[in-house]
Amino acid sequence: MEDDNRELLLFAVDARKNMYEESEDKVPLITMALGCVKEVFKSRIISDTGDLLGVVLFGTTKANNPNDLANIYVLLELDVPDPESILYLETLEKTPNWIMSQGLLNHAVRSKTLKVRKRLVLFTDDDDPIENDENQKNLTIRQARDLAESGMSIELLPMKSVASKPFDYHLFYEDVIGSTSYELEPVNNPISKFDELQQHILKKKYKKRVLNNTFLYLNSSTMEGTQSELDAVGLEVYALFHRPTKSKKVLLEARNNEPVRRVTIAYSEESGALLTSASDIRYSFPFAGVACVFTPSEMEQLGHLCRHGMELIGFENKDKLKWQYNIRTSYFLYPSDRTIKGSQLFMAVLWKQMLQQNQIAIVRVCLRRTSYPRLAALVPQDEKRTGSHVQRESCGFHLIWLPFAEDIRKEWKTQYPKWNDLPSKQCVQAAMNVISKLSIPSYEPSNYSDPDIQRYYNGLQALALNQSNLPQVQDTLNADDAQMAEVAKGELEEWTKIVASEPVGITKQEKSSQSPKRWYMKRAIEKKRSKQLLEEQQLDWKALARDEGNDGLEKQNMAVLKMFCTAYDLKKSGRKAELVERIRNYLQTENI
Amino acid sequence: MSEAIVLVCDIGHTLDAQSLNQLKQLSVAFFLRCITYGSWRQLFGLVFMGATKPENHLHNILGGYTHIKTLVVPERPDMSLVKYLYHCQVEGGFSDYIDAICVSSDLLIRAVNKKKLKPRIVLITDGKTEQLFTEQLEDILPALKEHSIRLDVIGVESFLKDSVLHKVQISNAALLCRLADSLDGTALSFDDSMEQLSEPIVKSFSLRTNYSGMLQIASVQFPVRLYTYCREFKPPTGKRIFWSESMESGRQVVCVRETHYFSVQDDRELEPEEMIEGHFYGRTMIPVSPFDLPALSYGAPQCLKVLGFLPKKDFAQHVLMSGVDVMIADPNDEISVTYFVSLTEAMLEMDRVALCRYVQRDNTSPVLMLMWPHLKSDGILCLFLCRLPVLEDIRHYPFPSLHSLADSVDVEQVDAVRNWMASKQLKDTFRSTRVFHYYHQRLLQCLQDRAVYQTLHNDENGSLPPLSSYLERVLDPAYFLTGRDPEPFKQLWKHFPLKKIDKTKRRKKRKILTSPQEISIEPYLPSVWPDRNESLEEYQKEEPVEEIVFTEKTKVGEATPVADFENMLSNKRHDWLEEAMKQMQDVIEHLLSQEEDQQRDDKIIHCLTAFRKRCIVEGEELRYNRLLLDIVQKATQGEIFIRNIVERKSTLFRRISAPGKEQISSTNSKEEEELEKQLEKLTSGL
Description:
The structure holds two protein chains of two kinds.
Chain A: E1 7-14, H1 29-47, E2 52-58, E3 72-79, H2 83-94, E4 117-124, H3 134-149, E5 152-158, H4 173-177, H5 194-203, E6 212-217, E7 232-238, E8 249-253, E9 261-268, E10 281-287, E11 290-294, H6 296-303, E12 309-317, E13 331-335, E14 340-341, H7 343-357, E15 359-366, E16 374-381, E17 384-385, E18 391-393, E19 396-401, E20 418-419, H8 425-437, H9 451-464, H10 481-487, H11 489-501, E21 506-507, H12 514-537, H13 541-546, H14 558-567, H15 576-589
Helix pairs in contact in A: 1-2, 1-5, 8-11, 12-14, 14-15
Chain B: E1 3-10, H1 17-37, E2 43-49, H2 57-61, E3 68-75, H3 80-87, H4 97-112, E4 118-124, H5 137-146, E5 150-154, H6 156-161, H7 167-182, E6 187-188, H8 190-198, E7 209-217, E8 220-230, E9 239-242, H9 243-249, E10 255-262, E11 275-281, E12 284-288, E13 303-311, E14 324-329, H10 334-350, E15 352-359, E16 367-375, E17 381-387, H11 403-407, H12 411-423, H13 438-457, H14 469-475, H15 487-495, E18 499-500, H16 536-542, H17 545-549, H18 561-569, H19 577-593, H20 598-618, H21 621-636, H22 643-648, H23 666-685
Parallel strand pairs in B: 1-2, 1-4, 4-5, 5-6, 7-13
Antiparallel strand pairs in B: 2-3, 7-8, 8-14, 11-12, 13-15, 14-17, 15-16, 16-17
GO molecular function, one term (chain B): double-stranded DNA binding
Protein name (chain B): Ku domain-containing protein
Subcellular location (chain B): Nucleus
């Protein structure tokens, strides 16, 4: 089905009277829904996936759609999101003056012939939009199933105003949504707060993209070439943590904002001849005065040390895994039957046994042809759900990269302080009191945002929309020091008092006098050498300084001027005019 | 600290061929190790003892050092030294240890001369020469100690392992061991030294502080330092050189890469100040002037601040997003050390970690860090820091639970997995931090091999050496296992049969009307058939001949109607929706008019399913409903037979609901009603 890696995401927002009632945040539900849609639009622009996004309102008296379907108003056609669409949504969010009606749930989606993943996200507060008309209800359910058959998955985000009754999922939507996809998760508790809605939409924000389809070879004793194909299981690799980057930049010609043509050439440093054939390249490594040369094929051969994929080395206790031995962001692995049938069953049993026995698997990983093999640990992960049954952690394996001997640094130990006594019990207790006072309830990644990325994309958005003022970015990674100090005022004071009165006593490390000494020596040598060179030039600097009209000093080049500055301890930085001015002032005041 | 080393090789008259060979191997291995892992500041000298002619500075000045030959005075080592080691021969002179040590230590004292270098003598000997002036030892030892010269002896234990012990060897062993002991050195046998030299070591890094500033906890702050603890090691990359020119000129010609920018309008090369940056915001490109650029980044003043404390159990390792830094207190600030130690102990006691805001340098972006305490086995108390994810870093992908699948197996299957896991337990000694980077080690091995080959043969075209014994050992996964019993593995596959799913090669659909059997492949086969036994199918798998031969599809044929239909609809160049739908309808009608048999019914079901699906996707529900009505009417009149088809796939004979279209025309609603009636009639009749 998914020939294309893109996704088609349509938001259908209920625009009937009930949606204008206020939520717990004192905001109309429809505004809340549109705010969330705007956030998704923004995030899709940032991730630049090329997905097509659209917004449809249903239950309107006015109709605006190509097929003249009643009660359907297409707000934004399916298209790649752009800054204008965000601006439009922002305007709507501020003025929700929709013409309301008592229309029925009556939405239709036309997806043309694109072979992409299709999703319909439905915002509504009405759990039973067709109360009495059984025929109409059946018809709507059949429509929804037809949509599902054509590859469209429908996801529901039920909303709740202050006044509305509890949302009964089973009245109508259970049949509408069905269970077309295993990713689908019914939201049982309706959402009444913007933050909550954002949390839910965040979970549906990204399309599940496989980073790599790989094999886990289980029989380590067989050698490559001789191994049976059936000693491996299929796994899908996902990146659950990924540091976002700033968008791609191109260079433009300043006078007309047109992209410039870029030409990269490779040429010989000596003759300037252009490189015509890639086979003319060799790789050279200096080794004790000898340049060791390798051909590109030899370089490739050097890196090929084990089979591609993952090779199981063995199992060990999970407690052996140390946090401090972390080098990269982890990956997530989920068994797949796509390439090897039976993988899911075997890996599910293995996963359960590993969980029960508190074991981890050590594997050798080489995911790509060009990457070097590394060691990693497969850590089983059990499913975890939030109070509202939203999956927080999925079943599967985390792939945690392990360091080699070369990755661990030990040089810092030379700087480790040496103290005579351990701090007193009172001192440690005082520190414990501070910790207790400054404890926070939990770590929720969604509460913290990268201000740099936010600033960058907000700035770009403002530039795109010709907004004069750049939107302010809230630095969520900062804390209110004064408030923290106030909360633990007594404890902090006590800790400070004890620390000052009962120091542990240290053996002071002798500061290395090497670097300043070397710097002074270097400066002295430079000064001496500069003076010698100036003497060799036999220039009359006083005369040069006086010869203002004929530009005596100005005629000297920067190297000579700097040399003078070095010789007479003057500042060497700045432009030529500044240097000349400095030297002239010096010559006027000093006798050389 | 860097070293100044003098290697002393015994080539005296007692040396036999085997010992000479061992000496060569050992000295080359030792030299290569010094070059590979030693500092660039280190000095290396070479002295032979047991030479027939004296060639050393002490003999020239004082006389008496008759059998010592100084080949290389301590200097920055280069590969030419390998030549001496490879080409050394037994010279038949008398090997006097005291003389050799005197000459070497004098060379070292001269070379070190106030430099920050550790002097070291490495003596390789077979220990068979009788020593005459051992009493002089007491005279030279204080001088050696004064200059902190270290002495290592290689080959000593080999004397003792010898089955026919000689009085001389025993006394020599005693002498050299005593010397090595007094000078903080070691005495090893040939085998042990060779084994040690074949094991890789870590080259030391220069110490750099990542952060030197205050750690702020609300109103309390004290100076701390951050150093790298665990970071991914990047193996060296080679310099790109122009091979043909390098061969001609006899020296390495570097290949330079340069990028030039040209105006699209007038094809003129542009200067940097004539260009500005353009950033993509989604698909829109936004020009950003140099004045706006600073506004696009967020900078904060340097800081390390605790945001709050949390229980350690709330975190798992998989959320950590970077390498790890280690934090220690400022070693020269007593108050800081007291704060630091008490805080770390308190965190350990309470099993707490801290969330921190970390800005490494002024005007850079802040990051969220996790800080946790650690007490190392050697008593070192420190805090570790690692990056945590924030909102933008998280991807929420839901996955179905594995519990039901894991519970669906029987006890035997579970036992098989358990036994297999038990047979695959790693040795207790296994630590990833004791395994060296595979690629880096392989590169070093090849570099050493090629450097030696190039120096000895003056030829740059050698082949890559086989894997070193170390790499062979660590690349064999079974090396780290406690056992090698294959039985549990066999049992495992008996209970969990795996089947590889052949991935069908995606190829374009055939685009001619005729069936594949009518196409002769003969004209497109290569003139020389590679393997007579290779089947046509196998050949076709590799070379999709159809792609080359067949033309674009314009009609829905009866051979593969569904494929043709889909093909026409997915054509990006032409809009053949109407045409394809019409032709498909014709094909279905034509098929229905044929005599009833299994094959015909299969085809009709296939076609109707595809047609129905497409009608839904394309919004052509009425078209399907009309076709259905037509079919049902014909069937009730007895013109066609659809009984079997309805029995097999009754869902196809339900009309598609067309929302909103009922209002478009009254005829449609009439048709709908008619269809409903007919369908009811038909299904009740069945």
